[in-house]
UniProtKB/TrEMBL annotation:
One function term, GO molecular function aspect: ATPase activator activity
A Pfam entry, by short name: HSCB_C
BP term (GO), one: protein folding
Name the record gives this protein: Co-chaperone protein HscB homolog
Family to which the UniProt record says this protein belongs: Belongs to the HscB family.
UniProt gene name: hscB
Organism field: Pseudomonas mangrovi
Keyword Ubl conjugation: no
Alphabetical list of NCBIfam families matching this protein: hscB (TIGR00714), PRK00294.1 (NF001420)
Protein's job: Co-chaperone involved in the maturation of iron-sulfur cluster-containing proteins. Seems to help targeting proteins to be folded toward HscA.
All residue ranges annotated as the J domain in the record: 5-77
One GO CC term, this protein: iron-sulfur cluster transfer complex
Assembly behavior: Interacts with HscA and stimulates its ATPase activity.
Record field: transmembrane: none
Amino acid sequence: MGNLCHFARFDLKPAFRIDLDDLGVRYRKRAREVHPDRFADAGEREKRQVLEESAALNDAYQVLRSAPMRARYLLSLRDGELPLEVTVQDPDFLIQQMQWREELEELQDSADLPALAAFKQRLKAAQERLNDDFELCWQDSARHAEAVRLMRRMQFLEKLNHEVRDLEERLDD
C-alpha cells in the first residue's frame, strides 16, 4: 500500500493533463474507503496501516491537483528527486519575474482592482502556455532540461498567483 505511485492510488496512468473533477471524485471515494473511523475496532497494526494509507492518499491528492507539483512529480518518477530551486540558470525568466514583481508592487500601491484582475488573467494565460509546453516535452528525455525549466517556471507562477490572491483579498476588505 505505502509504496504506490500517486497516480496508481487513483487508478490513473501517469500523465500531466488529468481531469481534476474526476481526480476529486476518485479521491473522495478512496478517502471514504480508508478513513480511520471505519477501522476503529481493528488491531493496532491495521489502524497504523490505515492511517499511513490515509496520509499517503492525502499527499498524493495534493500533489496531483497542482500542475507544478504534478510536473515535478512526473519528472521525479523518471529522474529521481529534483533539487528545489534554481532560477538563476534561467536568466530570461528571471527578468520576467522581476517585471511581474514590480508590476504587482505597483498594483498594490495603486490598489487598482480592475488592473489586478487583468494582471491575474495575464498570469493565467502564461500558466496555460507553460502547461501546454510542459505537456509536449516532459516524456522526451532529449528535452529533459527544458521540462525541468518549465516546471520551475510553473512553480514560480503558482507562488505569484498566491500573492495575487492574497493582495485581492486585502484590497477587497
